[in-house]
Write a structure and sequence with these properties.
single chain, about 325 residues, alpha/beta, 2 domains, twelve-stranded mixed sheet, five-stranded mixed sheet, 8 helices, 17 strands, about 20% helix
Length: about 325
């Protein structure tokens, strides 16, 4: 499945994310030389409807089309077939941000491709890794890391003072590359915004100019650090809606406005209709169901039992079914 290039295919920089299939038959790994040899690895379009990564990379590639980048760059362009249709993933297709080493072991072509990418970048002595994403709800721009070491924290805070540490789900790109180098996932808000593209492009350019990471630790006043403690899902057999009665669970129509708000015990997330005994599922880092510890589902309402902060709350039903409703987080002290 993977096509490897040592140059930019002709006409690539003129194409939007839904047009990349015209130049690339499938996932592509493009290696470009730079003045510093250890490459920066950037992955885009692991989810086909998250266009900011490609649009930002295209800006940076255009900037250095003649002179070449200040550091070698390896660009992985992921789910081109889903991007053609503007979808996260096609029906029956693997999620391209769940196929990486450290997750489920599989001999499906996508998993073998991800291993090939990681092995290639290990051999090339990768300097740092950036995985660029969007989300479907209202969220600030923030960085996500899988290790709390100083270089990872520096890499994340270069993008935003809001940083999320997570260990679930497994099989994500940043966790696989965290075994090789400092790695970060960028969450750049909703797709289609100029601000997200500009922010991601300027960050990518700044990383290409890094010669090394600072020797000093990140200072506590320069970071808001959170830890993901649970992934929240709607059970497959439960119908849900946003602001409309008629389903077992009715979420408010502006549910995503709760993202990155520190909610107190008793905060209401949804109504339960028709006397149904339904619950939201919540899986902790070990995959254990902890929904009953986090949610009070009595009196026709779903409320929080403890102080928590949601992230990535979405109103996109397809994303909820394919992935999750949201993640729940707590503040995390900066490690010594």
């Amino acid at each position: 499945m993977l096509r490897v290039y040592d140059h930019l295919p002709g006409g690539l920089l003129e194409l939007g994310p839904d047009q990349l299939h015209q130049a690339l038959p499938g996932p592509a790994l493009i290696h470009l030389p730079g003045r510093r040899v250890a490459p920066l690895f950037v992955s885009v379009l692991l989810h086909g409807n998250e266009a900011t990564g490609w649009l930002a990379a295209r800006e940076v590639l255009r900037k250095y089309a003649r002179s070449g980048p200040p550091r070698a760059l390896s660009l992985f362009i992921g789910n081109i077939t889903a991007a053609r249709q503007g979808l996260r993933a096609l029906d029956g297709q693997s999620d391209y941000n769940r196929i990486w080493p450290g997750g489920m072991d599989s001999d499906r072509p996508e998993f073998l491709m991800a291993r090939q990418v990681v092995d290639t970048m290990r051999e090339r002595g990768v300097f740092a890794s950036i995985d660029i994403h969007n989300n479907t709800g209202l969220n600030p721009h923030y960085g996500c890391i899988n290790r709390l070491d100083a270089d990872w924290l520096h890499l994340a805070t270069l993008f935003s003072r809001t940083v999320v540490y997570f260990t679930q789900p497994r099989g994500v790109q940043s966790a696989a590359f965290a075994q090789l180098c400092p790695a970060v996932t960028l969450e750049c808000g909703k797709p289609g915004t100029a601000q997200g593209v500009e922010h991601a492009a300027s960050y990518m350019d700044a990383c290409l100019h890094l010669s090394e990471f600072p020797a000093h630790p990140v200072h506590a006043q320069d970071i808001d650090l959170f830890h993901t403690i649970a992934t929240v899902k709607v059970p497959e057999n439960v119908r849900f809606s946003f602001g409309e009665a008629g389903c077992e669970i009715e979420f408010p129509s502006d549910l995503d406005h709760l993202n990155f708000r520190e909610l107190q015990p008793g905060a209401q997330l949804a109504h339960i209709h028709g006397g149904h005994e339904v619950r939201l599922q919540a899986l902790d880092d070990a995959g254990k169901e902890v929904g009953s510890l986090l949610f009070d589902c009595s009196d026709g309402k779903i409320r929080l039992r403890r102080p928590l902060m949601p992230a990535m709350l979405t109103r996109d039903a397809r994303v909820i079914r394919q992935d999750c409703l949201c993640y729940l987080m707590e503040r995390l002290p900066l490690p010594a």
